[in-house]
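hey so u asked for the seq, here:
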Amino acid sequence: MPSAPRPQPKAPRPQAKAVRASVTAVSGLRLRLLAGALAVSTVWAGGATYYLVFHDEMLARFVSQQSALQYGYEERIGALRLQLDRVTMEQAVARDGIAQRLADLARRQAGMETRQALLATLTGEAGAAPQAPPPDEPAATEPLPRPPGAKPFPTPDALELRTRDEALPGRQSSRLVELRMATLDRRLDGFAQAQTRLLDGIGARAGRGAQRLRDLVGRLGLDTARFERGPAPGIGGPLVPLSTDAFGVSLLQTQRSLADEARLRRIAERLPVRRPLTGELSLSSQFGARLDPFTRGYALHTGLDMRAETGEPARATAAGRVTMAEYSGGYGNMVEVDHGHGLTTRYAHLSALEVGPGQWLEAGAIVGRVGSTGRSTGSHLHYETRIDGEPVDPQRFLRVADAL
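ran it, structure tokens below
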């Protein structure tokens, strides 16, 4: 039998198409959301699984990193602390060194002032003004060494105050302090050298003076040992070693020279070298052999006859003690003065005596008045100089009067 014809589909309606399209879009969106959620869940699950699996390793790595940072900071802090301690120690050492140098400079300055006082004493004993040092050297009469016209250099006390005020820990301040202390040290060295030269000058002058006096005594035919006879004086005291530096050695030599000069000067002061009459001397008869004015034969004249008016004062030619003041034969009125060490002088033919036996006389004291007593032909002064009782030419002594 013939098949029945298939029914023809009906044409879709437009509204149905739109509905189906919307359903399809919603289904696709849901699928995408589901896929996204699945992906997120997968990522979350993977992350969670990774976190759970590698949690300890990450934590250990994090802790290791933090520890490394901490150790690095601690090591740096420790290095900085060591550097700070080293700087602090260096500053403390620098302060101690500067304080020590300041103390040394203060001691040297005190020593210089002591030496300066000693030099002033020695200069007074030498009786001569010290020579000024060259302009580039510190003046020897200053309490602190400084060149003439220059500002006083800082003392250790002032330097210490500046050190405190200038932030000593700074390297620049330390260098400034070092420079100032070095300058002060050099000036103190220069001052010490000037003092030593001044001391050497005093010693040299004393040595020349002592030699001059020694030569003078020798020209008189005397030995300085004559004036050193007698018992040795008592000496003693504790042993105090002298300094062996240049100043100490020069000081010892200078003191010896000054003592020698003073001793010889005391000897010279006891020598009968002054004139027994004031004014210019006019001799009427020399010392030695001559024709005697009374016998007209040759005889020894034991002194000098000096012209003078009656009553003119006759004076002692050196300090001494009167051993005779009386009329003595051909001498007439005569005074004898003992000057010690075997030296005596006689003043004869005096018209009057002004002194008595045992009396001490200073040089220049009046012993009597010129006259013509005794064995004399007219007014004059007979003057004698004797060594150990033997008459010597008085002019030997009178010629050296100007050398004293």
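Helices lie at 14-126, 156-165, 171-219, 246-269, 395-398. The longest strand covers residues 343-353.
lmk if thats what u needed
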